[in-house]
Amino acid sequence: MNFRQLTQQDIDWMRENTGDKAFWKSLPERVDYDYCLEHCGDVLCAGGVRLMNETTAVGWIDISPKGHEHIVLCYRTISEWMIQLCQSIGIIRLEAYVREGFGAGVRTVEHLGFSFERKVPRYFGNTDAMLFVRFFEQESK
Fold first, then answer.
1. Using CA of residue 89, residue 137, residue 62, residue 100, what is the dihedral sign?
2. What is the DSSP string of 19-84?
3. In terms of Cα–Cα distance, which of 74, 27, 34, 26 is closest to 50?
4. Tens-of-pLDDT digits for all 141 residues of the chain?
């Protein structure tokens, strides 16, 4: 046996020879969408989403000290970007995991329209996370 890195050739073969064709059809070609917000040469925040399947993604964000000086601008820009991105790539469910006890993170995701769903044990190593979720409507095709 040989345990090795998956290749595009392996993926192509599995798409044709799987018992679950729907699984391979629903895998997105691009997984990561990462961005940086800057103002006057200063990085205010970095963030993005990682697709888990064609309609579900996990979002992340980190706000710099300069970002906290312009927090209203950051929240407004992130909110607008998040809606546009989710609608453009078809995300219906966007998840955000916040380290338990990180109050600033909770306030941020709640301000961005996320709702608490459940606690996730040992998500960050031995530290629990709180899972927040936001849903987006998609136009019918």
1. negative
2. S-HHHHHTS-S--EEEEEEEETTEEEEEEEEEESSSSEEEEEEEE-HHHHHTHHHHHHHHHHHHHH
3. 34
4. 777 888 878 878 888 888 887 777 766 777 889 999 999 999 999 999 999 988 999 999 999 999 999 999 999 999 999 999 999 999 999 999 999 999 999 999 999 999 999 999 999 999 999 999 999 997 655
Residue 73 amino acid letter: L
Report yes or no on whether pTM surpasses 0.90.
no
d(CA 107, CA 4): 42
